[in-house]
Amino acid sequence: MAQKVYLSNYEFKEALNKYLSEISSVFLNKEVINTEEGLGRVIAQAVYSKISSPFYNCSAMDGIALHSSKTIGASEKHPIVLEEGKDYIVVDTGDPVPKEYDCVIMVEDIVNIAENRIQIYKSAAPWQNIRPLGEDIVEKQLIVPSGHTVRPVDIGAMLAGGVNTIEVYKKPLVGIIPTGTEIVEPGSDLKVGDIIDFNSRTFSAQVIEYGGTPKRYGIVKDNYEILKETLKKAVSECDIVIINAGSSAGREDFTSDLIADLGKVYVHGIAIKPGKPTIMGRINNKPVLGIPGYPVSAYIIMEKVLKKIVENYQGLKTKEPQKVDAILSRRIMSSLKHLEFVRMKLGYVGNKIIATPLSRGAGATMSLVRADGTLEVPQNVEGIEAGTKVEISLMRDMEEIKNTIVCIGSHDPILDVLSDMLHLSSKHYYLSSAHTGSMGGIMALKNEETHIAPIHLLDMETGEYNISYINKYLKNKDIALIKVVKRIQGLMVQKGNPLSLKSISDISEKNVRFVNRQRGAGTRLLLDYYLKKLHISPDQINGYEREEFTHLSVAAAVANGDVDCGLGVYSAADMMGLDFIPVCNEEYDFAVPVQYLELDIIKELLKVMKSSEFLKKLDELGGYDYSDICNIIY
Amino acid sequence: MAQKVYLSNYEFKEALNKYLSEISSVFLNKEVINTEEGLGRVIAQAVYSKISSPFYNCSAMDGIALHSSKTIGASEKHPIVLEEGKDYIVVDTGDPVPKEYDCVIMVEDIVNIAENRIQIYKSAAPWQNIRPLGEDIVEKQLIVPSGHTVRPVDIGAMLAGGVNTIEVYKKPLVGIIPTGTEIVEPGSDLKVGDIIDFNSRTFSAQVIEYGGTPKRYGIVKDNYEILKETLKKAVSECDIVIINAGSSAGREDFTSDLIADLGKVYVHGIAIKPGKPTIMGRINNKPVLGIPGYPVSAYIIMEKVLKKIVENYQGLKTKEPQKVDAILSRRIMSSLKHLEFVRMKLGYVGNKIIATPLSRGAGATMSLVRADGTLEVPQNVEGIEAGTKVEISLMRDMEEIKNTIVCIGSHDPILDVLSDMLHLSSKHYYLSSAHTGSMGGIMALKNEETHIAPIHLLDMETGEYNISYINKYLKNKDIALIKVVKRIQGLMVQKGNPLSLKSISDISEKNVRFVNRQRGAGTRLLLDYYLKKLHISPDQINGYEREEFTHLSVAAAVANGDVDCGLGVYSAADMMGLDFIPVCNEEYDFAVPVQYLELDIIKELLKVMKSSEFLKKLDELGGYDYSDICNIIY
């Protein structure tokens, strides 16, 4: 049986600083490169110009160069005639002005009177229209100081100052070793148990963003000796090496032993969540990190540890993320055992920024894609109450967040389509939806956390949809209902309907394996409505307690054979190639505070919803009746 | 004689929008690339997952997988014994859970009692510790919408969702053609009249920053036929082509004719400063720009025109620069003829942001290097008064600007050294100096525009330095004087002193060509002091009216043979390899408001000034006596 080794639990910042100081001798190596290849590099040695720019006196105008003494006394009444070659030469802008001349008269102030003769009507002052040597850059002047990160304009100025090579800090080559017997390359024929190696590709892109150069090695199986050889090779070829994963304490987690074998482990296990099973070590004076396998843990460790190493390696200033204050919409519980980074969705609703925690699972890649920022919950804090003002480190531009429609409530596949089409129609607008179920949408409207709540709530007494719920739960608010679609709800079953299900009563009678939706979802309320009507008790349903959050998740569970049946919309069943037994038609609408109907972004959304492209897409998805779309009921 | 063709003067934004709409058919070409190479690319076709992630039910823990029914009734008093293979299998985190099992018990809750037998003490709930299929990403779920710019996390999520290739907008290849008979490659042996081609290198770096790929062509002489062949080649190879320069209306400016010859010119001349002689055209459905030769004009046109084209080409969102409000320190005059972009230096002094215009010359590359932002003066505005609140588009992080010591006043080469050493000593601190002369420094203190004013002002009556000026001009302020150096002022003359100058009186007696410093410079006041003492009138000095702004510029003019002599400090003469005739010792100090002495950044500066590295550098520069350095007189 697996043995359990316990990791240490170093306080994060302390461990990181200790580690950075242990490896500080590897930082700030210098190299000389061509100035023109310097973009983004950090200057190691202050750059002083080698020549002046311009390095000779030159004309600032198109015109003639001459000595000012030849022009004394010229006036409208007494013009002076000058001869080319004898008195002046013709110059264009930038042409050198010979030493015997001290001024330039611009072409507009000259009258040609013969092939080589011109006339002038006023005298010229010494040095007029001449760009003197060094006007822009004087020889030996400081152009950029040490520690400066090179921009395009710096490249221009350094080359203009005769500086063709520069001394910069070396940019680290970061070796990335994906490990694991179960890991396979993207594009492989997948079999159950395989895990696609996407982490190493995310790491490569992160390394580029941090200012390093990534070098990805092939996947190494969980074999100590092979891994050891690969690690030795990577350490000899690269400046920094990261190993993913095997950094925990399971049966095949020997990254830590391996680093200790070849070098030294400073830290194994830090008080951070996600990301605890992290290893910080060194082999042959090269930093070596063991990065956890879960993608969110890996992301956090890359951001919080590797980024700092890459920055320190070449003297890059740390780019701190922009921060913003927001109101926490839900209580967050954390543990005193660790510092936690929680991914947050932000919504700019009614001039307030609302922050809602996303899935905190270490495997939730989509929580990173969907996140607008992160909230740091310190180690000594057990929780933060809803309504608290919190500081969020942004992962997305505030401008984008302000131009995003927040849509919290019931899920339907058309929300994905709308999100895409809105952004296509107006590239500054976004729609972001969170799937909390219809009642979650009603509560979000009540708490002023959302612009729109998609709902499909059947009043069991009147048989009417949505309106009675708004009247009951949002009676103090001015809410409009944008009609969207009538959609077909029904039983999703495997292709060919192997269990020959015909209706909801079959679920209990045939004891089929069912999967339910989460509490508060309109679809669950619909199930409950039918169960009550049919006098079926929930505990007669095998799987009533098993919850999924979207129609697609339910359909996926059926398609995979995990369960035999679930309740959901036609389009989701159709997307997954399932059979579908219609149960009822229901009305899926958007509840929205009346004042938001005036927002440009909501008007744009309505425009998209009325467009023929969108309606065509609804036809393709199937199971939607959009005859009332965009009718507004106040 | 040169003929003058007048350019058109289209209103800038109108011309740009017209042009962008003319060439809009070339934008948004699509291509398919590998997902892992997608960083920074713009999604052309919304990405939906192809598989779920995980694509099978898997264990969320290290432990055993089994069916929950086997655990019913387990308790501390009545543990249940289970047998490996028959009742359970051992699983690590991520391992698949076979369909016959529905839960995982974590290793911590298990007691091994024999080789293949374990004991449990509580029952397990169905689905506990299982990551169900699709927990992270459900098949056919939207991962990123069209128009989204790919980040590292998106690459991970797309690969996890089985999406190995993506459709993105094509990234443009931008051809850059430097032209001009006088243009030479960096590193060439320079002769008078040569101009180093640094523009095309700056352009390359700018194109990379904008999100395009640059392709630089060799320098083309001003020959219509050769240029035509190169342009045809570039148009056939690239997506966008820029020609630098020949875009004006001088003798050899035939870029416009050439574009018209091969295609169409939409605009030649826009009401923008700098940057008027710009050409916007098209050849074979490829955008072709003629970019002015002056580096600042070129920079502005790249930023305002090419950047937009590169962004529109691939559907990138325009990254607007951050903006900040600042108080204008000097009056700016502009013309009704054009929209003007003025480079600005910002100073964060006493909780106010002060904006000071930098050199407005189109050739002032260093004004771009030194700029913190730009001020846009609209075409219909003739000027902006000092003290006005203006909006600045930042070119540098506000955080950096806030950590910068503003130093306005007299120039000495040691300011360059201090700027470099301060940043080396503490990488978050900067020193930025503007050379306005000592009296300019006094005025900047008076107007609260600077932290520090370097001054060397001789009281002609008492012979005392600096203090009497502070008492006179800054009597209402609490100013301290940080002693810096005594430095030697003297006559800088060519190596070997060919005119055998011995003293200031020789300048007028021998009628030597002199170069002066600007009004308000302490060195000019020093000259005036001696002239008065020697009863020499300024008009007896040949070159009294010719002004340079720094010691180095004066030294450069002497070194170049433009003039025979100038007054300045020893270190500058020495740097340029000149001979030096000492005239006097003077005291060069920093005047600073007393309250700023408490700022950490000023304390850090004093630390640097007292360091042995700095004093060693003073010895190397020569001519400095630092026995009083960092003594503070209140």
From TrEMBL, chains A, B:
Pfam families: MoCF_biosynth (PF00994), MoeA_C (PF03454), MoeA_N (PF03453), PBP_like (PF12727). Belongs to the MoeA family. It catalyses: adenylyl-molybdopterin + molybdate = Mo-molybdopterin + AMP + H(+). CDD domains: MoeA (cd00887). Pathway: Cofactor biosynthesis; molybdopterin biosynthesis. This is Molybdopterin molybdenumtransferase. Its EC number is 2.10.1.1. Catalyzes the insertion of molybdate into adenylated molybdopterin with the concomitant release of AMP. It comes from Clostridium ragsdalei P11. It comes from the Bacteria. One of its GO terms (molecular function) is molybdopterin molybdotransferase activity. It is an enzyme of class 2 (transferase). Residues 175-313 form the MoaB/Mog domain. GO terms for cellular component: cytosol. Keywords: Magnesium, Metal-binding, Molybdenum, Molybdenum cofactor biosynthesis, Transferase.
